[in-house]
Amino acid sequence: MGEGREKEKVNSSEMVEEYTFLDKVRWHLAWAAMYGFYLLVWPIYALLHPVYTYKKVIKPFCAWLWKKCWFYLVVFGVFAIDQLSKLWVTSYVKKYGQIPVIKDVLHLVFVMNPGAAFGILPNKKWLFVGISLITIGLIMYYEKNIKSWWLKTALAFLMGGGLGNLYDRIKYGAVIDFIDVRFIDWPVFNLADVFIDIGVGMFIAEIIFGSEEDFDNILKEDDENGELS
Question: CA dihedral in degrees (79, 80, 81, 83; nearest 10)?
Fold first, then answer.
């Protein structure tokens, strides 16, 4: 009798497990069918009602995306502008050697720079990669505590430009430079450098003319995390 009851319990537990598994399969298939139907129908509805779709879906979504992710959208924009400019230089300017925009003032050239500005520390690829990664990591860590849009934009320019040059160093072992200012003694640079310089300038201006609230928030956050003790 005892063995018969144990067999019945085992059989009943197996039936429950099998039923539960099938139930989950049916549930997921139903949800997949519903989402598939929605993905098929929604574009048609959007085309038939473009004004409603824009006001109720696209515009609110873009506003939410900009509010939550505008910092990284700016970073991506800077990175994209830098890489597209270098792609154009590699495929076009490289063929002609140089293109005078304003003769003896501003020329476009193609230069692979294995070091820093003015040729400092040539062929130190991984040193610059490490410095870039640390800088980008610090920007990502402190960005969330900053409220000032001016300071966040400065950091976005720094991070986007840093990513552009970092990508070059990892892929080519050197940075692609192409802007040659000839009326002064200045090294050839690129758009990533321009954004980095703008970000540094904005950061310095914030330190000199801005309030101390954002910097106090950063220090306060670190103090609460026990990083300043």
Answer: 80
